[in-house]
Design a protein that fits this description.
The chain has 217 residues and is mainly alpha-helical. It has a domain of 46 residues. 36% of the residues lie in helices and 2% in strands. It contains four helices and two strands. It has a two-stranded antiparallel ribbon with strand order 1-2. Strand 1 and strand 2 form a beta hairpin. The protein starts with 23 loop residues before the first helix and ends with a helix. One of its GO terms (cellular component) is spindle. InterPro entries: Aurora-A-bd, TPX2_fam. This is Targeting protein for Xklp2.
C-alpha cells in the first residue's frame, strides 16, 4: 500500500481513504474533497454549528362555509369497546355453572324431609330444671380467721378486766377509826441547846460516843 504524503493526513477521517486501492491519486482526491467541504462549512458557520434552514410556517385556516348549502354537522359514531374476559375467568365460571347444574339434578331426585318439631303435650308440662349456682366459698387468706378469733378473745378479756377495775374503784375503802381509842398526841419539849453556833450561823454537833449510849441502856 502506498503512503499518502500530505500535511493534513492525520486530520482526515479513515472512511475517506480506501486502503484496498493502490492508487495514490484517488486517495489524495478523496482527502482533498473532504477538507474542502469542511472549509466551506466553517466559513458559513464559524462557531462550528450547522445552521438549519427555517421552514415556512403553514397557516391552517378553517375554510369559509358556503351560505347556500345548509349546514349538516357530522355526529360522531358511538363506539363501545368490549373487554374480553381472560381464559381463566371463563374456565372458572363454566366450572361453577356445571357444578350448580349437577347439584340441582341431585336435589330433584331426593324427597324433601320435614324438619318441623312436634307440638308438646299441654297436660304435662316438663320444665327444665333450674340451675342453681353454688355459693362462693371463702378461702383462707393470710390466716385471717385465726387472727380474728384471737383478736376477739383478747378484746373480751380486756373488757372484763376494765369492768373489774371500775368496780374496784367504785368501792369505798375507808380506814378504821383509831383516833378515839388512841392517846392524844403530845409534842416533846426540847431541852437547852448544847450546840455551839458558828460565826456563819451553821450548827456544829457535839461528838457522840457509843459507850455513853450503852451505859444508859
Amino acid at each position: 500500500m502506498s503512503q499518502v504524503k500530505t500535511s493534513y493526513s492525520y486530520d482526515a477521517p479513515m472512511d475517506c481513504i480506501n486502503f484496498t486501492s493502490l492508487d495514490d491519486e484517488k486517495d489524495t482526491q478523496n482527502i482533498n474533497s473532504w477538507f474542502e467541504e469542511k472549509a466551506n462549512l466553517e466559513k458559513q458557520n464559524p462557531n462550528g454549528h450547522q445552521r438549519r434552514e427555517e421552514e415556512p410556517v403553514v397557516i391552517r385556516a378553517v375554510p369559509v362555509p358556503h351560505f347556500k348549502v345548509s349546514y349538516k354537522p357530522q355526529i360522531p359514531e358511538i363506539t363501545t369497546v368490549e373487554i374480553c374476559p381472560s381464559p381463566l375467568i371463563l374456565e372458572t365460571t363454566s366450572n361453577q355453572l356445571q357444578k350448580d347444574k349437577k347439584i340441582k339434578e341431585l336435589q330433584k331426585g331426593k324427597v324433601p324431609k320435614s324438619k318441623a318439631l312436634r307440638l308438646p303435650h299441654f297436660a304435662t308440662i316438663n320444665l327444665p330444671e333450674k340451675k342453681v349456682k353454688n355459693v362462693t366459698q371463702m378461702e383462707p387468706f393470710f390466716k385471717t380467721d385465726k387472727r380474728g378469733v384471737l383478736k376477739a378473745q383478747t378484746w373480751k378479756h380486756q373488757l372484763e378486766e376494765d369492768r373489774k377495775q371500775q368496780k374496784a374503784a367504785a368501792c369505798i375503802k375507808a380506814c378504821p377509826n383509831t383516833v378515839t381509842s388512841q392517846e392524844p398526841f403530845v409534842p416533846k419539849k426540847e431541852g437547852k441547846k448544847s450546840v455551839a453556833e458558828g460565826i456563819s450561823g451553821s450548827l456544829v454537833q457535839e461528838p457522840f460516843q457509843a459507850t455513853e449510849k450503852r451505859a444508859k441502856k
